[in-house]
């Protein structure tokens, strides 16, 4: 039987998958997320409309209408990619279990809605792009195949999502070839992961809260702050730190060497037009490269000159409110 | 001066500096008046010198100048100094670079520019230095003054030298000054200002070097130490003093002669807000009895003078932090509201003779609150930077010389 996929997505990043499936004559339709119109979704709708690709709408209330439409269009398999809704059993049953999900992590590690953020935050140097069966429990289905993507040290979440999108056709092609060759080996997911030879609970990639974005100058190393900023760049608005009464958004930072002793982390070390704005961390220093504020986007140097951040001041003074 | 007055005026003599945009924005009012007035270089230099002489004349006047008179004179001196600074054509890099060096904060010329407006600091120092110079010249022919970390305007010496020259009090054969600063922007600005004030004859040398490692080649009679922030923190004043005091002649003096740093437990609201509600300006003359009576004085945390500096022994801690031991104090008992009080550290400076600066007279003697010092109370979230003790405890203070200098309390 000829495979006809319904592609479940809500982002233009799925267009690489759309084009791949179109070229192979395997695209039946695209099922869009249920959401208020946003620029990404609107652009995706325009593209699909322009290329006369059938669009269906996912409804959280019921799958009945969607299943009828999928049936009408002859869709017999599904691929979910950047699709925020959980697929229900009825829909999975419609495809007789042939629904795949593209998840950017080495499952079972980083199951959940924000795997790229958490992996970049934790300094991953490789992210695994996993193709697995959709099961009723999110991100738990058997794994078909995967490819590993190297993370560039400057990658932001946004950058990396684009890299993943570029890699999706290769992942689907690998799957198709293994299937055709009969070498596909569905692997059940383990319930533990191996970290440095130790069996650990998989990490969960939860939705990101503002507290997750806060820089803790007392504990975060330079690398951790740099990674937090790039993981939260751009959609999440960067890492946050407190200065005076406001919360500043750090979109980009760079790790710097600092051998000065006796300086509290969070203290501004240097302001220099060329070197920028340097802040002490527990293990060195960071340069605040790009800061987002209500007044605009600045490099650290200009921001400091404009808003009076001076070396010697602390960006996160403790024990406030004792006066 | 003579030479400039006779100078032929041509178009190129008028002020048209190539000023960095940032400085231009900051000093636009001063520049506008300069450009509008169409002053020649000689006229500008004369106005600059006059402003310096006027400020010092008020300070040395036999009749007490009012605060308003002093403010106007120091504001004029500041504006003229800024014009000179703009003539130095400092790049933005040099103008704004500020950083923490291994022994403390190095201020940018941009942020140092206000020091020349600090009326009572300059008054206390100028009067003290004047007395010291007179004392020295009463028994020797000349005085060599070392002024480390002098900043872009060297405000404790240049107004005084302008005054001496104008009044024919002392000449360059009697006074020679070594100016030292590690910031290249400060050096460029200082050279311009000395040129503009035509005080080059008094200059022994202008040296761009870190004052904590600089070793003068000649004997020093007076060591002028300005670099200090409130609570004796941030800048490397103690490291500079400790290093350079050994280059003083046997009968040489350090100005200030002594700095006494004291601690007190206060209510921030009374000390910093209520006390000053009706005061015209912050000054020790305006301290209110109600606030003074509410303080719980802890006593002297440290005393710095020539002999103390010469005897001071550094202790090197495991993590490359260098400290010197300060005093031990006993936290008083029987203060019911101790848990609601904060520590404030302030300096009393004796520059020379009876001259000096008391608390609140200047930024450098303004009591500095230490929000990490808890007595009979605990912070909501205990950090390693917090110090927690109880009434009756004995506390040993150390002074940290590395990074960001300041006091570190330890339970004795």
Explain this structure to me?
The complex is a heterodimer of chains A (323) and B (412). Helix content of chain A is 27%, strand content 27%. Chain A has 323 residues and is α/β, with parallel strands linked by helices. In chain A, the strands form 3 sheets. In chain A, strands 3-2-1-4-5-6-7 form a 7-stranded mixed sheet, with helices on both faces. In chain A, strands 10, 11, 12, 13, 14 and 15 form a 6-stranded antiparallel sheet that branches. The radius of gyration of chain A is 23 Å and the shape is elongated. Chain B has 412 residues and is of the alpha/beta class. Chain B has 14 helices and 18 strands. In chain B, the strands form 5 sheets. Chain B has a 5-stranded parallel sheet with strand order 5-4-3-6-7. In chain B, strands 8, 9, 12, 13 and 14 form a 5-stranded antiparallel sheet that branches. Mean pLDDT of chain B is 90; it is low at 1-12. Chain A binds chain B through residues 218, 260-264, 267, 269-274, 278, 301, 305, 310-312, 317-320, 322-323, and chain B through 22, 92-93, 96-102, 105, 108, 111, 234, 268-269, 272, 319-322, 342, 369, 371-372, 379, 383-386, 400-404.
Q: Going by CATH, what is the homologous superfamily of the largest domain in chain B?
A: Vaccinia Virus protein VP39
- Largest sheet of chain A, if any? 7 strands, mixed
Q: Strands of the largest sheet of chain B, in order across it?
A: 5-4-3-6-7
Question: At the third CATH level, what is the topology name of the largest domain in chain B?
Answer: Rossmann fold
CATH architecture of the largest domain in chain B: 3-Layer(aba) Sandwich
Helix content of chain B: 25-40%
SSE sequence of chain A, one letter per element: EHEHEHEHEHEEHEEHEEEEEEH
Number of strands of chain A: 15
Number of strands of chain B: 18
The total domain count of chain B is 2
Distance between the termini of chain A: 76 Å
Poorly predicted ranges of chain B: 1-12
């Amino acid at each position: 039987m000829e495979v006809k996929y319904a592609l479940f997505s809500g982002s233009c990043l799925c267009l690489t998958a759309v084009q791949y499936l179109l070229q192979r004559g395997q695209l039946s339709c695209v099922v869009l997320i249920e959401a208020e119109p946003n620029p990404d979704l609107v652009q995706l709708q325009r593209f699909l409309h322009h290329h006369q690709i059938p669009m269906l709408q996912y409804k959280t209330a019921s799958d009945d209408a969607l299943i009828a439409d999928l049936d009408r269009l002859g869709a017999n398999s599904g691929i979910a990619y950047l699709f925020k809704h959980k697929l229900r059993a009825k829909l999975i049953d419609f495809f007789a279990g042939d629904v795949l999900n593209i998840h950017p992590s080495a499952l079972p590690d980083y199951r959940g809605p924000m795997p790229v953020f958490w992996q970049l935050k934790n300094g991953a140097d490789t992210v695994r792009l996993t193709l697995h069966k959709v099961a009723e429990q999110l991100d738990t289905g058997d794994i078909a195949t995967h490819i590993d993507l190297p993370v560039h040290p400057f990658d932001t979440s946004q950058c990396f999502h684009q890299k993943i999108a570029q890699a999706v056709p290769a992942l689907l092609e690998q799957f198709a070839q293994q299937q055709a060759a009969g070498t596909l080996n569905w692997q059940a997911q383990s319930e533990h992961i191996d970290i440095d030879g130790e069996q650990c609970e998989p990490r969960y990639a939860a939705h990101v809260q503002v507290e997750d974005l806060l820089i803790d100058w007392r504990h975060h190393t330079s690398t951790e702050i740099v990674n937090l900023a790039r993981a939260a760049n751009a959609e999440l608005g960067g890492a946050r730190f407190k200065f005076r009464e406001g919360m500043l958004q750090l979109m980009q930072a760079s790790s710097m060497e600092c051998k000065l002793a006796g300086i509290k982390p969070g203290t501004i070390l240097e302001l220099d037009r060329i070197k920028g704005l340097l802040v002490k961390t527990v293990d060195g220093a960071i340069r605040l490269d790009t800061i987002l504020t209500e007044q605009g986007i600045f490099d650290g140097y200009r921001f400091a000159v404009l808003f009076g951040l001076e070396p010697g001041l602390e960006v996160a003074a403790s024990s406030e409110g004792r006066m | 001066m003579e030479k400039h007055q006779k100078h032929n005026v041509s178009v190129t003599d008028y002020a048209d500096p190539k000023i960095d945009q940032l400085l231009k924005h900051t000093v636009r009012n001063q520049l506008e008046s300069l450009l509008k007035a169409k002053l020649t270089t000689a006229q500008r230099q004369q106005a600059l010198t006059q402003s310096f002489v006027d400020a010092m004349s008020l300070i040395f006047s036999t009749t007490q100048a009012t605060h308003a008179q002093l403010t106007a004179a120091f504001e004029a001196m500041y504006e003229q100094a800024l014009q000179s600074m703009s003539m130095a054509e400092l790049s933005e890099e040099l103008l704004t670079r500020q950083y923490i060096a291994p022994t403390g904060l190095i201020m940018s010329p941009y942020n140092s520019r206000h020091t020349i407006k600090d009326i009572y600091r300059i008054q206390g120092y100028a009067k003290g230095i004047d007395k010291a110079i007179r004392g020295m010249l009463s028994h020797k022919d000349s005085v060599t003054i070392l002024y480390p970390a002098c900043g872009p305007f060297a405000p404790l010496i240049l107004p005084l030298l302008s005054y001496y020259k104008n009044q024919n009090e002392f000449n360059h054969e009697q006074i020679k000054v070594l100016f030292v600063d590690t910031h290249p922007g400060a050096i460029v600005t200082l050279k311009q200002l000395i040129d503009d004030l035509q005080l080059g004859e008094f200059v022994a040398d202008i040296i761009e070097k870190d004052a904590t490692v600089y070793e003068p080649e000649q004997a020093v009679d007076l060591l002028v130490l300005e670099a200090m922030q409130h609570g004796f923190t941030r800048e490397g004043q103690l490291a500079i003093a400790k290093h350079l005091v050994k280059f003083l002649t046997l009968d040489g003096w350090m100005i200030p002669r002594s700095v006494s740093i004291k601690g007190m437990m206060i209510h921030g609201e009374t000390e910093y807000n209520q006390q000053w509600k009706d005061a015209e300006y912050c000054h020790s003359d305006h301290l209110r009895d109600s606030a003074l009576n509410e303080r719980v004085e802890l006593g002297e945390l440290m005393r710095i003078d020539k002999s103390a500096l010469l005897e001071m022994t550094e202790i090197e801690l495991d993590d490359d932090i260098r400290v010197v031991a300060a005093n031990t104090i006993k936290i008083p008992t029987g203060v019911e509201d101790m848990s609601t009080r904060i520590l404030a550290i302030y300096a009393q400076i004796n520059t020379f003779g009876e001259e000096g600066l008391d608390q609140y007279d200047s930024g450098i003697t303004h009591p500095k609150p230490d929000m990490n010092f808890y007595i009979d109370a605990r912070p909501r979230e205990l950090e390693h930077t917090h110090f927690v003790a109880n009434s009756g405890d004995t506390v040993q203070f150390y002074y940290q010389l590395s990074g960001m200098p300041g006091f570190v309390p330890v339970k004795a």
